[in-house]
Every structure is written in structure tokens, then in C-alpha cells.
Amino acid sequence: MKNYRIEIKWAIIFIVIGLLWMVFEKAMGWHSENIDKHPLYTNLFGILAILIYFLALRDKRKNFYDGLITWRQGFVSGILVTVIITLLTPLSLYITHEVISPEYFSNIIEYSVENNRMNRNDAEALFGLTSYMIQGTSWALVMGVVTSAIVAWIIRTKKE
After folding, report:
1. Residues 6+ away with beta carbon under 8 Å from 91
2. Do residues 29 and 40 lie in contact, with contact meaning Cβ atoms separated by under 8 Å?
3. Taking a C-beta distance cutoff of 8 angstroms, is the pair 105, 127 a contact?
4. Is the pTM of this model over 0.85?
5. Which of 3, 42, 69, 107 could be bridged to 65 by S-S, CB 3.0 to 4.6 A?
6. Angle 37-123-102 from CA coordinates, rounded to 5°
């Protein structure tokens, strides 16, 4: 467990920053009156996500590998961060949609139907907690693996 302290720390930081981002989105009205802007602006979190992975792998390189890290070591570390984030994603989504922004689903369903983006049945099937937990968990896993591979390549300091 001691060997994975850095990955656990950064996965928790990722989840906390993700929850703070949801508070920010709600404050910006992207879950209510400005919901039309949500699909575009929510993607800005990706910049923070990449930065967190970069900081996590840099921390691992500096404080565990004494400043020298291969791509493989960085990638494995990133995968561990990803697995922990993926495991915590359902809890994070529950907090987001039950505590931070419980009106989000009803707002996005109404917006989608009123703007002819989809019919009510499809909107209700897509925009619900269970659906978001499946989508969010899958997205966390896929994007975490991709981000880990890229960031590990950037921060590597020695050839394998």
C-alpha cells in the first residue's frame, strides 16, 4: 500500500477537484438557465484532468523513482490512478447529482425535449443517475488509460 500512496493521493485530488468543478458548473448556470452551454464548457474540465495526471506522474517520478522514470513505470502509475478514479466515479456522480445539482437531470431532459434534440423517452433513458454512472465510469477508464499513456511519454526520463 505504501508503494501506491502517491496514486491514491492524486486519485482523491482528482475526485475532489471534479466535485469542485461541478459546483463551479452549477454556479455558472450550466446546469440550469445556461444549460445550452453545458456540452461545450463541461469539456474544459479535461484540461484540469490532464494537469492532474501530469502532476501525479511528476510526483511519482520525483518522490518514488528519484527523478528517473521510464514510460512503462509512468504508465503503470497512471493506470493505478485511473483504476482508483474509476472506482470512485459512481460515488462522485452520486454526490454531484443528489447533493450538488439534483435538478440537473430534469433540466437537461426538458432542454433536450423542448429543443427537439430527442424525444422524452430517449432523454429520460439517457439522462439519469444509472446511465450517467455507466457512462462516467466507462469514460473515466478509457480517458484515464489514454491520458496515462500520453503523460507517461511526456514525463519519461530514461529509455527502457
Report:
1. 15
2. no
3. yes
4. yes
5. 69
6. 65
